[in-house]
Amino acid sequence: MPKKGGKHTEVGKEMQAQCKRAKVEAACSPSLMSYESPESLFGSLISPIKEEMFFREYWEQKPLLVQRNDPLLAAYYQSLFQFSDLKELCCQGLYYGRDVNICRCVNGKKKVLNKEGKVSYMQLKKDFDQKKATVQFHQPQRFKEELWKIQEKLECYFGSLVGSNVYITPQGSQGLPPHYDDVEVFILQLEGEKHWRLYKPTVHLAREYNVESEDRIGSPTHEFILKPGDLLYFPRGTVHQADTPLGISRSTHVTISTYQNNSWGDFLLDAIPGLVFDTAKEDVVLRTSIPRQLLMQVDIADSTKKLSSILRMLADRLENTRELRSSDMKKDFIMNRLPPCLGNDSNSLTPGGKLPKLDSKIRLQFRDHAIITVEPDQENADEIRKEMVYVYHSLKNRRETHMMGAEDDAASEEGTSQQTHGLRFPLSYLDALKQIWSNTIVCVKELHLISDEEKENLALALWTECLIEVI
Questions:
Q1: Cα–Cα distances in Å, from 197 out to 12, 132, 180, 219?
Q2: Cα–Cα–Cα angle for 357, 352, 433, nearest 5°?
Q3: How far, in Å, CA of 409 to CA of 412, rounded?
Q4: DSSP letters along 161-221, please?
Q5: Where is the JmjC domain positioned along the sequence (predicted)?
Q6: Which of 122, 225, 333, 401 is most solvent-facing, going by the fewest CB within 10 Å?
Q7: 134 C-beta neighbours (distance < 10 Å), count
Q8: Cα 262–264–270 angle (5° rounding)?
Q9: pLDDT, tens only, 153-199
Q10: Shortest CA distance to 237 belongs to which of 215, 208, 216, 217?
Q11: Distance between CA atoms of residues 403 and 411, nearest Å
């Protein structure tokens, strides 16, 4: 069993200096979340650390601890999620496994204490009090609007899915064993205090979750207490464990995570097939047959020279043409991300106002929630499938299923699982779409299309999906 509470080891000099600087600056300039833009939201999240410094010195490199002495921020953090919310949430039909995990770290291993079926608040409270179990609440942004607002803005900022989990741990207990994750992690301390220990990564920028044994991870590189209003960031692969000290009734923190399967390697796996397909149309080398019986051989090392030559040729083509298409990653992101959080202004997601005409001036809206891709025609089953332009958006995505994946069985059974929303156009519309995306205001009659009818049809289609407004 990992040691709980007790005296803490010395924090590294670098971390001490950083924390001291952060405390001083935070005391001088307290700030809450700013929702004016994705950039301002992220800036307020890591304040007082500046964005440029964060990405230069910390992102994917090392942990960042921001300890704040700000009662207003502490109160705001507590409003995001607190232990008392569980009673009401349990009345909304939560299920073990899908929505909530009950667990505890026992002898360096995670012990899951889930029951079957729906979560009972009385049983949950009993396990929390008597078994010293941690409550892990999956994707609370489905229920808590403020977290929805934060994560939706962060998805716009990063261009990557952003999930979250809340962990509520009683005093003198630890929910999870030492482990590392495959995501970039931002931790906000909401209630109580948590004793954290971070260790040097055993796998830098890990691509999968893994539990590590105490005898393999060595001594902590960082050790500290998080209090309400504090922020902790660490890169994927950082080994960590945390417990609630004795004398603290409980600890509640939310872990906001992003950049899962979002590396250059993932992008290449997505984009290279399209590059090979397009190049094979023009270069006979890629249409030449592989050697006879190559697939029957145990060792195909003799073919590596040829493959290396082809890869160099593809790299030269890419550098000269600068054309690289990523469709599956784009679609996965737009299909599974959060819809805009508009509060009382939800009418913006319903077509309204003036219809776009040929002499209208139009402006793109919800730019961060729409993408353009070029793909083979999905509605044409003929042997020769023409390329079409697709505009996908997340305006109609369901917040209730965000980041739930295959676990959301109820939604799948009801036919309400996530689907792609968008429009399909001939390839000739691509320049006009780029024109709308790259300009603040565009006159419909000046769109780069041949006929006035095409110009009006494009504008009307985008207006119907709430992607443009008439000025």
A1: 12, 20, 12, 9
A2: 50
A3: 5
A4: -EEEEEEEEETTB-SS-SEE-SSEEEEEEEES-EEEEEE--SSTT-SS-EE--HHHH-S-S
A5: 139-271
A6: 122
A7: 27
A8: 75
A9: 999 999 999 999 999 999 999 999 999 999 999 999 999 999 999 99
A10: 208
A11: 13
